[in-house]
Design brief:
The chain is an all-alpha fold. The chain is about 65% helix and about 0% strand. The protein has helices at about 10-25, 30-50, 60-70, 75-80, 85-90, 95-100, 105-120. Helix 1 packs antiparallel against helix 2, helix 3 (about 60-70) packs antiparallel against helix 7 (about 105-120) and helix 4 (about 75-80) packs antiparallel against helix 6 (about 95-100).
Length: about 130
């Protein structure tokens, strides 16, 4: 008798197929196909887990908090990208921070979705 499978586990065959398509598209230098495969590689398990997961109290707020934290990552990376210049070590050069601004909403959405998709049970909850 086989062991019962976790109904919340990601689907491995579609993920591996998408990873194969991403590899082939990258090797063939087909940019649109590579970006589509990369987006599918992130969205497939996320959508699957968000739709099949059992939601409990506090998941929405913790997910939004993770999105808020993740939305600051592009700003931090932009600020760190200017640190090789000596004048930016003393005073923050804003062009690096401003360069990361268009990515803030996307990073927030991605952080929220990734938390909802992959986070384990919160404090005081049991994994079922």
């Amino acid at each position: 008798m086989s062991e019962p499978q976790d109904e919340h586990a990601p689907l491995w065959p579609p993920l591996l197929l998408t990873l194969g398509v991403l590899y082939v598209a990258t090797e063939a230098r087909h940019a649109k196909l590579a970006l589509t495969a990369l987006a599918a590689l992130v969205l497939l398990p996320t959508a699957w887990r968000v739709m099949t997961r059992r939601w409990v109290r506090g998941d929405v707020m913790r997910g939004l908090g993770a999105g808020y934290i993740a939305s600051h990552v592009p700003l931090l990376l932009g600020a760190c990208s200017t640190l090789e210049r000596p004048e930016c070590r003393i005073h923050l050069c804003m062009e690096g921070v401003v360069a990361g601004v268009p990515f803030v909403p996307w990073a927030g959405v991605l952080g929220t979705l990734l938390y909802w998709a992959w986070a384990g049970p919160g404090p005081g909850r049991r994994a079922e």
